[in-house]
Amino acid sequence: MLCQSPFTPLDSLQDCNKLYQFLDFCKQQSIAEQHEKIASISSTIESIDPLAVLWQFGKPQQRHFYFENRDQERAIAAIGEARSIQIEGTRRFETAQEFIQRCLKHFVISDASNLPWAQPCFFSSFTFFDQSTASNSYFPSAIVFLPQWQIVQGSDRSAILLHQVIEADTNIELLTEKIWRDFQSIQQISYSFFHFSTQLPTLLNWEIVDTHDFQSTVVAALKSIQQQQLNKLVLAHAIDVVSPLPFQWGHSLHNLRQLHPDCYVFSVGNGHGQSFVGASPERLLSVCDRTLITDALAGSAPRGRTLAEDTELAQRLLNNDKERREHQVVVDFIHQTLAQFGLKLRFTHVPDLLQLSNIQHLHTPIQTVLPVGLHPLEILAALHPTPAVAGLPREIACEQIQQYEQFERSLYAAPIGWVDAQNNAEFVVGIRSALLDGNRARLYAGAGIVSGSDPEREFAEVRLKLQALLRALV
């Protein structure tokens, strides 16, 4: 249960004296209970751009997280760590949940924001597989962290949240001064534009290298499907891009949100120089006031160059037997998985279309009510990976992915998102994504292979997805 401060100060971040009083109260609580406290303070302000704050206020050696909802009415930036945990192994989702619940026991809330979406959040990323296969993996199997600074933008208001660990020997006076200075720095940031000191050279100056022969891999996968080893296999393709100058994740992220306003835009920075960025169309789950929504997203076609061509391609996708079968596999999996929790689902039995700027997908949103006591991470653990990013049967598909793919997936096609103090949550699937590391970038895209798949068409689909990512890096 979250502890509420007796002061309930209004916007204590904007009042240095109240800030000191609250932090000192937390220190006295820490002394009395002989345990650290996590002070949580929120301040509602005029609307600001969290990405601008992250870009200008965040430091390269700090862990960061950025998440922008595709409806463009909500964006969150997380900077630094108040508390964090790195997890390896098969119990990573359970351990993450235990860590969050343990931290919440020691929270002291200064003044709960009157904005329902501005609650303390724990940001997390889980790699596709629960064990890394590479010795130089940049991201652990799971990372969960409570940021020091959390900047949230709503439709017309924003909030700044501070999370600060307070112990019995904390120097409250020095801490108050530092927090006050940082808060003033955030308020003075220019939010109206991004300034990038250098621009990357054009694509002509880049070196682009395929990691493997994707079409040959599809041919091999089709043989496994024909031998009835599995029904579907999702194969990823990766290309490495080398630029004469370092990639700027802020620049790429800003481009992504402009080019793909209908997607979830995200960035996960590990604090060691590497960032995983992307614009995903696929929501794995969202929970708001116990209403859970997940998406079945499988079956794809390009967009047309004219309205007539676009309409024809859309209708062809809706009537395509191969694409409909691929989509139904995902719907059935989600239905069966959630039914194991005793959940009653609501969804249409005919998919609609999710039309993005350069591609369109068969889409079935699935909705249910999450019972009290069932944590979003329990659902997440059961859903990942769905047949939309792995295949079916899931265990055999994952084994074949590791056999066929010549690279580590890391965060590609894996859950990326947040859980707040009220058990609201939002996680997306980390597709249409890239790992940025200095002047190198690895771009990922995938395609679902089922009986009847054409290797040349599947390669064209991944090229289409990779081209959209390349545009954002320029």
TrEMBL record:
<protein>
    <recommendedName>
        <fullName>isochorismate synthase</fullName>
        <ecNumber>5.4.4.2</ecNumber>
    </recommendedName>
</protein>
<dbReference type="Pfam" id="PF00425">
    <property type="entry name" value="Chorismate_bind"/>
</dbReference>
<comment type="similarity">
    <text>Belongs to the isochorismate synthase family.</text>
</comment>
<dbReference type="GO" id="GO:0008909">
    <property type="term" value="F:isochorismate synthase activity"/>
</dbReference>
<feature type="domain" description="Chorismate-utilising enzyme C-terminal">
    <location>
        <begin position="212"/>
        <end position="465"/>
    </location>
</feature>
<keyword id="KW-0413">Isomerase</keyword>
<dbReference type="InterPro" id="IPR004561">
    <property type="entry name" value="IsoChor_synthase"/>
</dbReference>
<dbReference type="InterPro" id="IPR005801">
    <property type="entry name" value="ADC_synthase"/>
</dbReference>
<dbReference type="InterPro" id="IPR015890">
    <property type="entry name" value="Chorismate_C"/>
</dbReference>
